[in-house]
Automatic annotation (TrEMBL):
Keyword Protein transport: no
Descriptive protein name: Alpha/beta hydrolase
InterPro entries attached to this UniProt entry: AB_hydrolase_fold (IPR029058), DUF915_hydro-like (IPR010315)
Signal peptide residue numbers: 1-20
Protein origin, superkingdom: Bacteria
Methyltransferase keyword on record: no
Keywords: Signal
Organism field: Vagococcus luciliae
Amino acid sequence: MRLKKCIVPMLCFLILILSACQETKQEKTATTTKTDEKVENSINYTTTPTLFIHGAGGGRSSLGYMIKRFNNQKVASKSLVVIVSSDGSISTENKLNSEQFSNDNPMIQVLFKDNRNNEWEQARWIKLVLEFLQREYNVKEVNIVGHSMGGISGLRYLLQDSQTTDLPKVNKLVAIGSPFNEFIDTLANQTLDELLTEGPSEKSDRYILYENELNGLATDVNMLLIAGKISDEELSDSVVPLSSAFSVNKMLLDHGNQVEYVLVEGHGANHSDLHENQIVDEVVSQFLWDKK
């Protein structure tokens, strides 16, 4: 796997983690050893659940293997599967025996039965999931990991509802291969650096709507944007242009959010491979749980 020249090492892998606001980046917090069965890692273990939301047409396997890997590595623990029907009704699997999540970075897989609906309807379903978690498990805060459309719907929820309700607060959003500027590739007209510092040279209707609704987004939500680049000739993950996946970087920074972005190149950078990529696992677990 190839990454750009400005890549920095992390855990024996070469990873590009470029944060435009490193001076305000939170410090890593705690080294905690869980039970005797768990390997000692530098990980911030909390009761805060992380919701994993698949993309358009996705299902159990979309982010299920990533969840399984984190669980096997004892970085986090798969706690619940929440299934949302098209009418918004919710059912669960692996129902917890207790009334709250344990202190092991619980993970919740969210499955939409109508898995090709639009971002507004999916944002409504995310709100219903948060209402359910608050009601049933007294959840106060969450993180969200979204692949493709899952990242789009996560941001749409944050823009529309996160500050207008008393629902659990979203601390962090990870967007993996999400087409925030739809499928417009602007890198024929601007460099990647220009995109990151100036925003996209061409804006889709979706992007313009983000700009118009940005005041709905809390500035203390931290974001991680992940994009794939198959080759120097194909500046995309085969589905989403990397310029689209990174398009909101400047907008979010100007709004006051902390943003990191990660570019994965070459083998494993394909759209459907990004959530099976070991480097992506590492940067996601570092971003969410301070894994060293």
